[in-house]
Write a structure and sequence with these properties.
The protein has 365 residues and is α/β, with parallel strands linked by helices. It contains 17 helices and 11 strands. Bound molecules: iron/sulfur cluster (SF4).
Amino acid sequence: MQYIDEYRDAGLARRLLGEIFRTVRGRWVLMEICGGQTHTIMRYGLDELLPKNIELVHGPGCPVCVTPLETVDKALELAARPEVILTSYGDMLRVPGSATDLFTVKARGGDVRVVYSPTDALKIARQNPDRKVVFLAIGFETTAPANAMAVWQAKREKIGNFSALISHVLVPPAIRALMTSHECRVNGFIAPGHVCTVMGYEEYDSLVRDFRVPIVVGGFEPVDLLEAILMLVRQLEAGEAKAENQYVRSVNYKGNLPAQRIIREVFEIADQKWRGVGVIPNSGLRLREEYAAYDAERIFDLQLLSADEPAECISSQILRGIKKPTDCPAFAVRCTPENPLGAPMVSAEGACAAYYHYRRHAVAG
Ligand code: SF4
């Protein structure tokens, strides 16, 4: 299959690994930002094939994992209201809130519907003019254009019973926050290819300049990731710090300009809370004043919630690359995909789920 087979080619992977072994001298900690990249690393055992002096740690790039508990609780509150149809991507239904999850609310009679895109939610709004349809709009820059377009379209069509509960996060401010933390031990980043398909990688220039840290935009197949690691190692060994692009088949420097325009039209930058990480300045998107009529937070009188994570869940340290899922005492014991304690075990992209699917036997044995 074109664009799949060649990026899973064993011979090519071996050649890249050999080049990494020949190049590396120092000890380097590299972070892949995206949960999809984490899953590829675990699935193909890339971390175990690398030289021992290269350590991979896993970043905060799983949209479900970083959606604040308070947002999940607000969605739960909305879903329990008889006038509301709560629409969401499937992953969010199993994410535990403070007391329950959307699946349980649905089982108790709440009208919760899984959709594949925000335009599906808009369609449900058109079909149900006597109900209030709320779309749980979460994610990184990747989902922001489609979510923005749905809100823009609702305004254009004057669909008054549609709104969005927004929890959008941005990658560059998260890297800045990680690098500013005294606990950070990351020497180089693999930036998420799909985010950069939308945003380009121009905005990483200031990060490499300010922190002298190399950043390589990477894809999601094993050959992509090995090549991105090699590019980082080459920079680190040469004492360089540049923003580079491995994922050239999809990403260019400036990104998708029309997609960026619709994001800017509908959203503005705001401080954002990341689950397990805390508030990061200017790291989120909220609806502009002109679109306030479509903001579920403003339309519904939602309580100001403050929620705590389960005490034994160490996802805050996992999402910042300080610890790994196997360091968590609850991993694969009290916390499993069937009974998740924290979001990184729920989401298909979560680091704990990746370790559970591909490494738990090694840990147990
Ligand atoms: S294994 Fe479960 S409890 Fe532990 S950090 Fe991951 S999600 Fe949290």
